[in-house]
Amino acid sequence: MTHEIAVIPGDGIGQEVTPAAVEVLEALDVDFDFVEGDAGDAVKAETGEALPQATRKMAADADATLFGAAGETAADVILPLREVVGSFANVRPAVSYPGLDAVQPDTDIVFVRENTEGVYSGIEDEITEGVRTLTRVVTEEASRDIAEFGFDYAKQNGFDDVTIAHKANVMRETDGLFLETAEAVAEERGADYDTALMDALAMHLVMHPEDYGVVICPNLAGDMLSDLAAGLVGGLGLLPSANVGEENALFEPVHGSAPDIAGQGVANPSAMILSAAMLLDHLGYDDEGDRVRAAVEGVLDEGPRTPDLGGDASTDEVTSAVLDRL
Amino acid sequence: MTHEIAVIPGDGIGQEVTPAAVEVLEALDVDFDFVEGDAGDAVKAETGEALPQATRKMAADADATLFGAAGETAADVILPLREVVGSFANVRPAVSYPGLDAVQPDTDIVFVRENTEGVYSGIEDEITEGVRTLTRVVTEEASRDIAEFGFDYAKQNGFDDVTIAHKANVMRETDGLFLETAEAVAEERGADYDTALMDALAMHLVMHPEDYGVVICPNLAGDMLSDLAAGLVGGLGLLPSANVGEENALFEPVHGSAPDIAGQGVANPSAMILSAAMLLDHLGYDDEGDRVRAAVEGVLDEGPRTPDLGGDASTDEVTSAVLDRL
Ligand SMILES: CC(C)[C@H](C(=O)O)[C@@H](O)C(=O)O
Ligand SMILES: CC(C)[C@H](C(=O)O)[C@@H](O)C(=O)O
Question: Would the keyword Oxidoreductase turn up in this protein's UniProt record (chains A, B) (predicted)?
Fold first, then answer.
């Protein structure tokens, strides 16, 4: 069966790492048709729209989407794209790899981030001059969806520790609902779990990441905690992510368009290639997903490495090394 | 001039570390009158109120308050107490000390956290069953107050780097107002500064804390980022904080009541004693504040140390060692 994959490189290093991931996918024995769409600062400068209707439709119609990064317009691109694919779960594994210089070399955590609500509601008002509000929304339905997804993910992927992150001591009603719904899901499944206030969790993650497995988080907490964990394992160049919906999904590196190094051909393609591996898993090509991960891990361990990891290799050299190991 | 200091030990290790800090203050040549008040789980169990009116009044009337920690009722105690003292700025230095095993030994950051609004508004609603909202409030006035405080603090304390943390790419109107107001303050003062998205900042703080000095944050971001930084320097047992108002202030360790170790006499009193040092600075006893900090630093460097820092000393032994060095 042919799968149609929408490819949206976007801006900056998105233009450099996305082709690398596509090359890796093309090297596998999978039946993918690639269609390419525009999004981001560049297309906005040309057309006035950061996310053209054609790109939206492409992502909606595809079996899965690979997205690189966008610049200033990142939120205008990625937030609607997550909606287009119906994503309710943002899955962000943070793993330290042998041989890399990590702040915490013993990290193997998957953040399962609620991806539709919280402070991402987009509802903001000016009440009077100088006084503005944002309506943070938490529903039982979205809380249940993310908790079910998180506990299922932990079970399927062999994680014993599940932590529910929240700030229900301050956001009593909203995070209270998130917490109580997630706890109810755990009880229904007879699953073990811990709960953690998100501030205390930030501290513990820094000191003892080895104590955590799957962390189920509200939207903004997941945004911050997964970036924190990127810092623990050696930077954003390593973190892939999946935005998972019922019938569609989008895969993207956690990093942005990195304007400081864009155009130099030295961006680390690992996060993007690992995102492609998550896409393979998602479409049922688990063995291929594992092969790609093993190849990337081999290269991370033995080099060549891009400058963000202390090496001096180019994006192309790293990509070729991954291809050689497939 | 005699200063009246309200002392509120609270629950758990608050009962152990607060007397330690008072002992240190009593050993100095300062004219303090101490009055003690109840707050927390224990007094709630007895009286039904986590923060009795008498304690509220004591904090309101005092020149400054020392607060230990509260248990389950932490939010019911500390949030109203911050209001009672009119605190708009929560100052949280995170410093790594020589000789201690820190995740990042080169950390010297002061978080200046907005302390009155954001998601701490307390405005929550149930819209319909299973759908709840929280109104996040950002005002120009509070944003200006915290930014002015932050830039002044940086100048007075010799910090070159000031970073304004925000998530204005998602919370466009609210954090947009926070960011633009803080930037306006910087321009007015001709001060250098950087801005950082709070997620990216979490990553950079973990990898390169040495790049940061003063970080001005919205309320919840400051809550999380300062705990993150506590993890970098060796745990919450080391972080003091000041809740500063126009005419009053409250000083407390960043840690909580630590029920797991409460009652054993092994709690690290450093954060609490360092909070007392901030109280001394605040009341104009800068030399005494420096003396206390130097004594604590000496003990952290050479021991004795409590178990959280890998030692086996008791709270009393550490406190005596600090007193010996004064
Ligand atoms: C660009 C931004 C809107 C986005 C988010 O906050 O979700 C990004 O930080 C991410 O984590 O993918
Ligand atoms: C106890 C809680 C309400 C409080 C806060 O969120 O401010 C605490 O985490 C802190 O940082 O002092």
Answer: yes
Please name the residues in contact with B207: beta carbons below 8 A apart, sequence gap of 6 or more: A103, A231, A235
The model's confidence at residue A99, banded by pLDDT at 50, 70 and 90, is confident
Domain hosting A136: range is 103-233
Residue A165, strand partner residues: A196
- CA–CA dist B319, B272 (Å, integer): 11
- For residue B75, the CA-to-ligand 2 centroid distance in Å is 7
Question: Are B117 and B83 in contact, with CB atoms under 8 Å apart?
Answer: no
Cβ atoms of residues A246 and A121 within 8 Å: no
Nearest CB to B235 within list A171, A207, A224: A207
Q: Which of the four pLDDT bands, split at 50, 70 and 90, describes residue A196?
A: very high
Residue A131 near residue B135 (C-beta atoms within 8 A) = no
pLDDT mean over A227-243: 94
Integer Cα distance of B23 and A34 in angstroms: 71
Closest chain B C-alpha to A217 CA, distance in angstroms: 14
pLDDT at res. B235: 83
A73 close to A41: Cβ distance less than 8 angstroms: yes
For residue A189, what are the CA distances in angstroms to A89, A192, A244, A318? Answer: 19, 9, 21, 43
- If one residue of A166, A167, A170 were mutated to test the ligand 2 pocket, choosing by the most ligand atoms within 8 A of its CB, it would be A170
Dist CA A142 CA A157 (whole Å): 22
How far apart are the CA of B160 and the nearest CA of chain A, in angstroms?
23
Whether residue A98 is predicted with pLDDT greater than 90 in this model: the reply is no
Residues in CB range of A192: below 8 A, 6 or more apart? A160, A161, A162, A186
Average pLDDT over chain A reads 97
CA dihedral A202, A208, A214, A220 (to 10 degrees): 10
Pocket lining: B79 vs ligand 2, CB cutoff 6 Å: yes
A283-308 pLDDT tens trace: 999 999 999 999 999 999 999 999 99
Clarify whether residues A139 and A245 are in a common domain.
no
- Domain end position, chosen among A213, A233, A253: A233
Kindly calculate the radius of gyration of chain B based on its CA atoms and give it in whole angstroms: 19
The answer on A79 and A59 residing in a single domain is yes
Q: What crossing angle do the helices spanning A219-233 and B198-207 adopt, rounded to 10°?
A: 20
Q: Is B34 exposed, middle or buried (0-12, 13-18, 19+ CB in 10 A)?
A: middle
State pTM to two decimals: 0.97
Measure the CA angle with vertex A224, ends A218 and A228; round to 5°: 130
What pLDDT, on the 0 to 100 scale, is given for residue B16? 98
- A18-36 mean pLDDT: 98
Flag if A136 and B136 touch (Cβ within 8 Å). yes
- On the CB side of A127, CA atoms within 13 Å amount to 12
Which segments of chain B have a pLDDT < 50? none
* A233, A249, A277 - which closes a domain: A233
Least CB-CB distance to A224: which of B138, B172, B198? B198
A120 is catalytic: yes
